[in-house]
Amino acid sequence: MRALAKQIITTAALQVGIPEASILDEPKKQSILLPVPRCELFYLPEELTRSYKKIAKFPSAVNPDQYRTVRSMLYERKLTVRVTVRSDDEESLAALTNGIIAAIPAKTADADNNLVVVTASKAVRGGFGYRLAEPMIKRSSALYFIFTGMITKDEDIPLILDVNIKDNTSYR
Fold it and tell me: Could you tell me which CATH number the domain at 2-158 has?
């Protein structure tokens, strides 16, 4: 799920105009040598919820004449990613933040072709002080995206190919 989240956020940031070298995992220590504007990604712990239900039926890939594949959802998984956008001025920060939110797709598919829903939950602005003179302007906006997917299991079930009905009752 992390790889998919990183790919989606990277694609959105590239569409807004942030260079690929400026999209990085959140550094342990901030430095003035880091590029501006930039996106920093931080992954919060993934939440798993047991939720069993059958979600799809389709012909088996191995033997479609004899078997049907049933896909069942075992767990719902939620990954929250904090994307911190850093910029020098307020106008470019607002444009980058709004552009990234608009470029994130609402739904996509993961590597197993399961549905992943992406929602933006909140945005926290930082670095907006009230001092008259600011020596080094540091503007940031932390966007929280929730990626909701599932852990599934595929099971091949044999098809009923022949039915014989025996009538053991007689009507007289």
Answer: 3.30.2000
Question: Rounded to two decimals, what is the model's pTM?
Answer: 0.81
In contact, 150 and 54? CB cutoff 8 Å? no
Rg (CA), the chain: 25
Q: How far apart are the first and last CA of the chain?
A: 67
Q: 106: Cβ–Cβ under 8 A, 6 or more apart, which residues?
A: 117, 118, 119
**DSSP labels, 119-141:** EEEEEEEE-----S--SS--EEE
Q: Are strands 38-43 and 47-59 parallel, antiparallel or unpaired?
A: unpaired
Place of tokens 């009905």: 165
Where along the chain do its domains lie?
Answer: 2-158
Alpha-carbon distance of 79 to 60, in angstroms, equals 31
For residue range 112-166, list pLDDT tens digits in order: 889 999 999 988 887 655 555 455 567 889 999 999 999 999 999 999 888 877 7
